[in-house]
Design brief:
12 helices; 2 domains; 69% helix; 245 residues; mainly alpha; three-stranded antiparallel beta sheet
Length: 245
């Protein structure tokens, strides 16, 4: 048998916590000494271990009490439900990570805190992906829409995102140079290569996305690209074709 002090020392659970577990009926001592001191049996210790395991899995004390008092099938059902909650939380954290990166990069690119852009970025990430892509529906077919929605942002490294941001930042800082110049051609070539990295060298998808960009011109979904950047890239493409003639 274990006194509450010994149980606390062996398990790392504070006496105060054990008192609370006793109070709510989660773990009650099997017996007491003549002096009224609580004594815990091996079964009580095993129950505490189960409580600690379930608590680690993210279950609330109320849920844990319910699980411990029900059958094994309920255990399995509860764990499956908890797995679903964990997966949803992972997805939420992934989206939050991308939103934070977007905000961080926007400050880096703008050189200041632009709250209008930051708020727009947050709104974009709060949207359902299908809803966010609705403006593309006149330019992309169903397979292309699905491919973009299925793109896993976790497969795009932070380094690749930084490269993308830097390429567009460089273009923004050089909008007044000659589109036929070597520098302009190199910048747009870098932009195109980065776009191919994101879209898996799918020429049809790239072409349709470019058509959407040309027609829609702007919107936070294209950030950090804007109308001026798109027009500059378009002028570089035209200059490149003219140089071939």
């Amino acid at each position: 048998m274990y006194t509450i002090g010994k149980l606390s020392k062996n398990t790392g659970v504070t006496v105060r916590t054990l008192d609370y577990y006793d109070e709510i009926g989660l773990i009650k001592p099997s017996s007491k000494t003549e002096g009224g001191h609580r004594l815990y049996s091996e079964d009580d210790v095993m129950r505490l271990e189960r409580v600690l395991a379930l608590k680690y899995m993210g279950f609330s004390l109320e849920q844990i009490k319910d699980i411990l008092e029900n059958s094994t099938s309920t255990w399995q059902e509860s764990i499956q439900q908890q797995l679903e909650l964990v997966k949803r939380e992972q997805e939420r954290l992934q989206v939050l990570e991308q939103a934070l990166l977007g905000v961080s990069y926007s400050i880096e690119i703008e050189g200041e805190i632009n709250w209008k852009i930051i708020f727009s970025i947050i709104q974009l990430y709060q949207q359902d992906p299908e809803e966010a892509l609705q403006q593309y529906k006149d330019y992309l077919n169903d397979d292309e829409m699905k491919k973009i929605m299925d793109m896993n942002v976790q497969n795009i490294s932070e380094e690749d995102i930084r490269k993308w941001m830097k390429v567009i930042h460089d273009i923004k800082n050089n909008l007044n140079i000659d589109p036929a110049s070597e520098k302009a051609q190199q910048m747009v070539e870098s932009w195109l290569n980065q776009a191919k990295e994101f879209y898996g060298n799918d020429e049809k998808l790239l072409g349709d996305m470019w058509e959407a960009l040309q027609n829609l011109k702007e919107g936070i979904v294209f950030y950090p690209m804007n109308k001026k950047v798109i027009q500059f890239i378009e002028s570089v493409f035209i200059a490149k074709e003219e140089l071939k003639e």
